[in-house]
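From the methods appendix. Each design record in this collection lists the tokenized structure first, followed by the designed amino acid sequence. Records were kept in a plain field format so they could be parsed without special tools. The example shown here is representative of the layout used throughout.

RECORD:
FOLD TOKENS (216 positions):
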């Protein structure tokens, strides 16, 4: 089954370009296009894509608000911010809204395709610039609830960019069990996304920052 992608960008030329080169990969399928954030939310509900490529600066509803709405209503749909904006506030807001990744529009095509495939597997994917900004600005959760030893192991592997399936294999447990651990980790840390949890792992020294900006 190809990875189903929804493109959200208010520039038709950008949407057409993305559709064209993503269509060259048989593992990817563009299932829809949205010209604003509100349309992105509506189409995400209708089409249930695996990944939404989300521009941040759009009319009607911006990409950050759209990301938050999609992640709240459709937790199985991953959102990847794809933007020309690298301001600290934008990066932080996108990740807080639940984006699993943050890539710039000047990213090489093959790198973007790898990032999309990583996002579809639930792997955190940040451009080096975004990772550096996040580590400067994002604070560790206030008094997070203590994680169990197994949850700490899952968090470490998750922050290293491993998908649930890979974590399950590494720890010799079922994939459903991994999902349960991930949900518990997010709840205990009081964060909305795997990306925020991964940043916490860097903050406490569980993994290095390099893991967040390395290619999959």
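DESIGN:
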């Amino acid at each position: 089954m190809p990875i189903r992608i929804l493109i959200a960008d208010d520039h038709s030329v950008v949407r057409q370009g993305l559709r064209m080169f993503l269509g060259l990969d048989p593992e990817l399928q563009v299932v829809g296009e949205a010209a604003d954030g509100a349309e992105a939310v509506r189409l995400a509900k209708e089409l249930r894509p695996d990944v939404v490529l989300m521009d941040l600066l759009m009319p009607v509803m911006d990409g950050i608000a759209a990301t938050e709405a999609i992640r709240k209503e459709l937790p199985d749909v991953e959102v990847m911010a794809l933007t020309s904006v690298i301001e600290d506030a934008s990066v932080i807001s996108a990740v807080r809204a639940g984006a699993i990744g943050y890539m710039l529009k000047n990213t090489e095509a093959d790198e973007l395709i790898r990032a999309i495939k990583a996002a579809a597997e639930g792997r955190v994917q940040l451009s080096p610039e975004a990772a550096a900004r996040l580590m400067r600005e994002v604070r560790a959760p206030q008094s997070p609830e203590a994680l169990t030893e197994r949850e700490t192991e899952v968090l470490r592997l998750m922050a290293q960019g491993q998908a649930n399936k890979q974590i399950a294999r590494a720890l010799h447990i079922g994939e459903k069990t991994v999902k349960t651990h991930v949900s518990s980790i997010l709840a205990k840390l009081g964060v909305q996304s795997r990306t925020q949890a991964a940043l916490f792992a860097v903050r406490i020294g569980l993994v290095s920052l390099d893991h967040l900006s390395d290619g999959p």
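APPENDIX NOTE: The chain has a mean pLDDT of 86.
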